[in-house]
Amino acid sequence: MTKVKDDSRVRQLDTRPEDGNTLEVAPGVQWLRMPLPFVLNHINLWVLDDGPGWCLVDTGINAASTRAVWEKLLDGPLADRPITRVIVTHLHPDHVGLAGWLTARTGARLHMTRGEYLSARVLAADSAPPPPEALDFYRAAGFDPVQLDNYAERFGRFGRLVSPLPITYARLADNDELQIGGRRWQVLIGRGHSPEHACLYCAELNVLIAGDQALPTISPNVSVWPTEPHANPLADWLESCRELPNRMPADVLVLPAHGRPYHGLGKRMARLITEHEEGLDAIRRLCNEPRRAVDLFGALFRGAVNSSNEVMAAGEALAHLAYLQAAGELVAEADELGARWYQRT
Fold it and tell me: How far is Cα of residue 146 from the mean position of the Cα atoms in its chain?
């Protein structure tokens, strides 16, 4: 096992593979680091020994640079055995982006939860211009005309980052057991960051492939989106954070989608819960006076919110507001321009 170093929050591995290369982190588990052309500049993918073949977990975005890395791997280190299956933890483009291309390229079957697969198919079908309901949604959050134009310009980007998904897939569900390379991997479902996020836990190895459900240093985005404007994803997220550590030993090795593998799942989940509770407390204080979702960015985000991330910021602010509304702590009223103002009850 690779050595780990102490951290104030978790104990992370002290090494990582170079982009496009693999590193064994547990018997039969290869860590593949793939570059991303974003501020978050990488994603961790996993290659599992599946006996006569290889099982892939997550894929990277649909981009020529990512496909080139996969071609090199499929024609090189992975060429000795076929790809048996492609497992995708959830619908976000850095995870599902090349699932369609890889399954078509290798003949492997796609495995996803139903909520993630169907949601990905719906989002991939979006095309410009955005529907009026979506514009109304962000107008209600407090977007001004410039912000609405920016949203409209970016609408449909999901489909550009995701290769066409196969029309059939194998469904994953909570507590399913997959036999991969002679070992049992249990499917554990988390919610809030996405509808039905699949994690994979192997008790024999004491390893959890966590996707975005348990990141070591950053908090996954938890948002309300126009497709489900009355959702309460933060309630789902906090429940998942409380439940996940109880389903495995405290010393499990967590393999996250971003950052380095680490030990200390319970500690990390407790910190994520605390961060969101602190955000809720800040919103409670601010909403002693009427506020829109856009007025709350400073309470929730340390970094700057700009045209590249304001949609996610609005979604996260709305998730916190929805949580407090569901608890009966806030009421909301729309003004003549369609913006919704939230205030303590």
Answer: 28
CATH number of the domain to which 276 belongs: 3.60.15.10
Q: What are phi and psi of 160, to 5 degrees?
A: -75, -20
Q: How far is CA 132 from the centre of its chain?
A: 27
Rounded CA gap, 184 and 178, in Å? Answer: 6
Q: Is the pLDDT of residue 5 over 60?
A: no
Q: Identify the three-state secondary structure at position 35.
A: strand
CB atoms within 10 A of CB 306: 9
Spell out where 181-329 has E strands.
183-190, 197-202, 207-211, 253-256, 262-263
Instruction: Please check whether residue 53 lies inside any domain of the structure.
Output: yes
Q: Copy the structure tokens of residue 73.
A: 């791997």
Residue 326 lies in a domain: no
For residues 265 and 199, give the distance between their C-alpha atoms in angstroms, rounded to a whole number: 13
The answer to whether residue 328 sits within a structural domain is no
Structure tokens at 33: 């680091």
Answer yes or no: is 271 within a domain.
yes
Cα(54)–Cα(183) distance, integer angstroms: 13
3-state class of 42 per DSSP?
strand
The count of other CB atoms within 10 Å of the CB of residue 46 is: 23
Helix or strand or coil: residue 341? Answer: strand
Number of helices (H) and strands (E) in the chain: give both, helices first: 11, 17
pLDDT at 1: 29
Query: Rounded CA gap, 253 and 262, in Å?
Result: 6
Q: Percent of the chain scored above 70 by pLDDT?
A: 97
In angstroms, rounded to a whole number, what is the distance separating the alpha carbons of residues 116 and 124? 12
pTM: 0.95
Q: What is the pLDDT of residues 71-98, one digit of tens each?
A: 999 999 999 999 999 999 999 999 999 9
Number of domains in the chain: 1
Range of the domain at 87: 4-286
What are the tens digits of pLDDT across the range 281-319? Answer: 999 999 999 999 999 999 999 888 999 999 999 999 999
